[in-house]
Specification:
It is a single-pass membrane protein. It comes from Janthinobacterium kumbetense. Keywords: Cell membrane, Membrane, Protein transport, Translocation, Transmembrane, Transmembrane helix, Transport. The chain is of the alpha+beta class. The chain has helices spanning about 15-55, 105-110, and strands at about 60-65, 70-75, 80-85, 90-95, 100. It has a 5-stranded antiparallel β-sheet with strand order 4-3-2-1-5, with helices on one face. A hairpin with a 3-residue loop joins strand 2 (about 70-75) and strand 3. The longest helix has about 40 residues, at about 15-55. The model has no long low-confidence stretch (mean pLDDT about 85).
């Protein structure tokens, strides 16, 4: 008369133990490992390269600022850089606003 079968609770198994707990956390651990290699590690690498570039700035280098201005470095102080953007026109910017170090002779080609 009834078409629905009875549902019974499954008996607990004692075999899960440590292995059962490890398999339940495995997807979470894998997600953090993947995030580290896809997001955190490349960002740290770029930041390290940026710091190395800022430390290596010297007079005569051709650079691009974060605002898109191109110029030649005329003076480097601890946290600031003076850039010559045109003949007789110099601006002072923070070192952290320098985004790219251009190859020598790039400004002449423009």
């Amino acid at each position: 008369m009834f078409f629905i079968s009875n549902a019974y609770a499954q008996a607990p198994t004692e075999a899960l133990g440590l292995g059962g707990n490890l398999t339940s956390f495995l997807p979470l651990v894998l997600m953090f490992v993947v995030m580290y290699f896809l997001m955190i590690r490349p960002q740290q690498k770029r930041a390290k390269e940026q710091r190395a570039m800022m430390d290596a700035l010297a007079k005569g280098d051709e650079v691009v600022t974060a605002g898109g201005m191109l110029g030649r470095v005329s003076k480097v102080v601890d946290a600031y850089v003076t850039i010559e953007v045109a003949a007789g026109t110099e601006i002072t910017v923070q070192k952290s606003s320098i985004t790219t170090l251009l190859p020598k002779g790039t400004l002449k080609a423009l």
